Every structure is written in C-alpha cells, then in structure tokens.
Amino acid sequence: MAGLVPASERAPDIKPLGVGITRLPHAMREFSALGIGDALTAAGIENRESRFYNRFGQLIYKQPRGKFAGYQYPEVGIRRGGLHLILYENGARAAETRGGARRPWMHRPRAGIIRRLTSETGRPAGAPVAKPR
Questions:
Q1: Is-above-0.90 flag for pTM?
Q2: Residue 44 CB neighbour total at 10 angstroms
Q3: Which domains does the chain have, with CATH numbers?
C-alpha cells in the first residue's frame, strides 16, 4: 500500500450529488488503467457527438466524440457526485477517508508543508468514514 495517503472530504457524508461532468477519452484511459473505466461508463452516458446551435435552433457545427471519433476510449458524461462516489468506493479500500474536514490554515516548516484539518467545531476532523481493508 505504499504511496497511498489519507483523503479528506469537506462534506460530512459521501453522497452522489452534483452537476454533470464530461470525462474525455484521455481521462477514461487513465480511469480504465485504475480499473474503474467500466464502472464510470455504466454510471454515466457515452457521448456520441457534440452539436452546437445558434439562438434560432439552427445547427452550426457537430462533431463525433470518443469512440465515435476514432478514439480507443469513450467520452463519458457522468454526474460529478457519481464520479466522486465511484472514486470514493474504490479508494476507500486502500486509504482512510475522513468526513467533515476543512482546512483553515497550513504551516510550512523547513521540512515541508503540514496541513491542519479541523471540523466545524474546531476539533480534529471527524471520525474515519472508511478504514483500510
């Protein structure tokens, strides 16, 4: 488990909320290398093409996207919260994640940066939401 670090989240609970976000083919290549490309595609939609219209509804331009444009990986539209939830579920297996954290300040000693996390009450950030398995 070398190289893994604890992750902190500002929200006290992890929920699939948020607006849409598009993952381009180069990002999907990296997610696929991490083993979550199929999960992201299943949770989102595979974009076939982009179309641009003027204010009168007349088509200005269209272009194929992802696999339909010849890329090896798809372009996927997914809710941002859905993306975060998939990342959380897969990352929580290997890293400790704490909820309700915020970063009010940072201290920079000679040896590096120390990040201080506190909760809304000013105490150390919340109890672990997930522990390494």
A1: no
A2: 21
A3: 7-97 (3.30.9.30)
Write out pLDDT tens, residues 58-117: 999 999 999 999 999 999 999 988 888 888 888 765 555 555 555 444 445 555 545 555
**How many CA within 13 A on the CB side of residue 8?**
13
In contact, 49 and 62? CB cutoff 8 Å: yes
DSSP secondary structure of 18-85: S-EEEE-HHHHHHHHHTT-HHHHHHHSEE--EEEEE-TTS-EEEEEE-GGGGT-SS--EEEEHHHHHH
Phi, psi of 42 (to 5 degrees): -65, -35
